[in-house]
Prior knowledge:
The chain has one domain (2-176): Rossmann fold. It has 7 helices and 5 strands, in the order βαβαβααβαβαα.
Amino acid sequence: xxxxxxxxxxxxIRCVASLREEGIEPTLFWYNPNxxxxxxxxxxxDALVDYAGRVGAALVQRDEYGLRAFLAAVGPEGxxxxxxxxxxxxxxxxxxAAACGCDSFSTTLLISPYQDHEALRAAAGEAAARHGVNFLxxxxxxxxxxxxxxxxxxxxxxxxxxxxxxxxxERYRPAAKTV
Length: 179
């Protein structure tokens, strides 16, 4: 069994389909304490719950909105925020995968052309080693546009920024680059 960390429903569409084409039935895992503000967190979570139901995918949630812990970890300037996000989410995914007896874990973050794949692989590899579970790497990036298109066809909520409060600021006030 593979535990698939899911950042959002649109990013999960082609990841789930691709894994299923390989004969892997992933269990979806929602854990995203980096997503802010709360209304955005809730919209993404609820869209994933809807999508999982539509495609008959098992979904496990660690429903933890983590604004204060996130800000305490990255500070007021958001230094190192992406590395922190990768580490926190993949660490929890690996921990949960090991506790559930999964063979492996992966993440839908691997579909985004905007994410740092090498940093993701490093964080996942470290978490895998600590918890004794395999990290299932797939470069899903070629599937990104098709997944976004399908999300639109399904009328799933599609966000306009990565997730944290700093990326929201960058999205709506581009001169505010913090990292």
